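job 3f2a | input accepted
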Amino acid sequence: MTVRRINQTRHGKTSSVLIVDITVVLPDGSKKRIRKKCPLQTKRAAIEFERDLVARAHEEYLQSKGGITPILFSDLVTLFMERHAEIFNKPTTVVSKDKDFRNHLLPYLGDKEVSAIGKREISELTMILTRKRNQRTGRLLSNKTINNVLTTLHKTLDFAEEMGFLKSVPKVKWLKQKAPEMKRLTLEECERLAEAAEYPFRELITLAYRTGMRRGELRALHWRSIDFKAGIIKIEHALSFDTITTPKGGRCREIPISEDTVVMLKGIRHLRGPLVFCNDDGSPLTSTHMAKYLWKACDAAGIARIGWHTLRHTTASVLADMGVQTNVIMKVCGHTDIRTTLRYIHPDKDIVFDAVKMLDGESQGRHKAGAVISIFPTSQ
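job 3f2a | predicted structure (380 res):
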């Protein structure tokens, strides 16, 4: 019993007194024994006194921790996924974060108290990750992969600070990484690629490089989103795995399409369902299915294998080659930051060659000088 009577001798006299003798388990799992005489010698008062002692022990513990509510990192991850990631992130991002936690963060930080995670622990984690190998390929983790894991950790600690589990977020030092060398195709290569593809991937590839639509937006494209009369496609949805979501960034947009594209889309009208591009039973195309047939077309066209995102980079780059202003390209691609658009633009090598030659007045490449100058809009 935590409340009990003991015999106490004082000034030669022995009396029976009520005491509280308890062991309090603190939030971090440690134990603290408390043994005190009750101020009021009644059973009810002793029980109330016991409750006060337990509450005071917890308050003192929190004060020693700076007033922060203690929580293990593993429990924080569960809260973060339920109350943040699954609400605010798209399914693909949720899956990516879950992999970061399971494969990299929980094995090292899972049993640590969040308030104990500081610069030292993050530095040690980074060192461990730089020595870790990919289970599938056997190669060391790239700096980009490590930075992605550290970003997931940083967002989780931000969440912890908001929830009162952390006083301040420790600084994360990201690794230096090379900018990825993104491919782009020429218009001639795009046309050759589309010609080498089978239905409906011929039309799918053509629409991809003519509009810059994302793969998930192409998969989710509905017939009702196409205004054939006005020549406009409304980007209202995207497919992330099998889940219908909003386009990336949560913003819908409209993309004008040419008369040739209108005729092409009218030519593949079907009654299999609301999706423009789908399987024979009307179900959405899978990402694996799309990658398989894109690579098959690449092989047939004699082009190095690419991903669907390369066609999106191609759209931005070709528009820039044609002299379209960057802010217009940003609208077409659905970017919210013009710096993202600039990363998508890869000028044609001939245009770069001619631009340099113009300094010596020797531009003799396949592109005219005007094409070079038109990339950089000038005021009228």
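job 3f2a | The first strand starts at residue 3 and ends at 10.
job 3f2a | closed
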